[in-house]
Amino acid sequence: MIKPLIQIDIVLSIFNQENLIERILYSIFKNTITPFNLILVFDGCTDRTKPRALKYIKRYKAKNLKELIIADAPNVYETKANNIGFKLAKNEHMITLQDDMVINEYGWERRLTYPLRKFEDVLAVTARIAQNINDLTNINNEYTDSIGKELNNLSRNIFAIRDVINRGPVAFNMYHLSKLNYLNENYAPSDLDDADLSLRAWEKYKLRVGVYYINYISPLYWSKGRSNESTMNVPVSIKRNSIKIMNDHKDYLETKIKHNDNILILEKEIDYLSSRYSINNIFYIFCRPYRINRKATKYIILRIKDFIRKVILYKI
Fold it and tell me: I need a surface site. Which of 97, 143, 197, 314 has the fewest CB within 10 A?
């Protein structure tokens, strides 16, 4: 029997996204049809992200928003910032989003949590990528059986079980997550903390993880994780945590046991509550933010210039 989704927590940790934050919030408000608590962790923001977020929420409070929970962190980056939000969650199911992703699917939260509610042994479901770890010390052969929306090889009706998942949006069974003591902060500031959690879940409790399709928008130029102002040193973090994963989970990884289940979940199974064409949903056209995204505009101009340059070179 499918567990009903009565209420949910949505966790969003944010670092300097003043040009995008209103659009992110709009996408949550417009597309979430289940009553929810919104947990915002402002992680060392030095721009106007926080005041813009709070102003937008006050002006366009979502119909289904039950409680707004605010936390601040001193730029500790994703692993620790996410844990702050996770520990404030109050419901049986929680979804965490990254601050460079805009939801583009009505009823997304019911769809993403559906495998959690259908299978009791599932810890987490991502909408991004799931894969099996081969050898993270070998750059040319890190993962096998990778599948996901971003790889363009995931059918909308397939819930794909693999060893590990990669980033948000991720839905969690909170009973299982708290039992595992959340993300391992030894992997902070970030990188492979989600892989470590997936492997710990299987080794300790035989809990599975996988990927299930929802629609979202997340172009690379929106990301703040690799910017110079972030506390995350990507090359150092990736190298260190790759070695740590292989050491921490050596016994399991050496067994070469892999998860490769592709489970069919038909669209008609999902317990959506209303149509995307409902009056409430259509009303949100008046809440859409129209602030100019300077970063996106700059990116588009650069693409146009690059296209013109290629045309000129081709003509020559």
Answer: 314
Closest to 211 in 3D by CA, of 141, 143, 138, 156: 156
Topology of the domain covering 8-315: Spore Coat Polysaccharide Biosynthesis Protein SpsA; Chain A (3.90.550)
CA 231: distance to chain centroid? 20
- Amino acid letter for position 40: L
Q: Could you list the pLDDT tens digit for every one of the 316 residues in the chain? A: 789 999 999 999 999 999 999 999 999 999 999 999 999 999 999 999 999 999 999 988 788 999 999 999 998 989 999 999 999 999 999 999 999 999 999 999 999 999 999 999 999 999 999 999 887 776 656 888 999 998 999 999 999 999 999 988 999 999 999 999 999 999 988 889 999 999 999 999 999 999 999 999 988 777 765 455 666 666 677 788 888 999 999 888 888 777 899 999 999 999 988 776 666 666 666 566 766 555 556 656 766 777 677 667 666 6
- Residue 90 neighbours by CB under 8 Å, 6+ apart: 9, 37
pTM: 0.87
| Domain spans, the chain | 8-315
Dihedral sign computed on CA atoms, order 63, 102, 97, 53 = negative
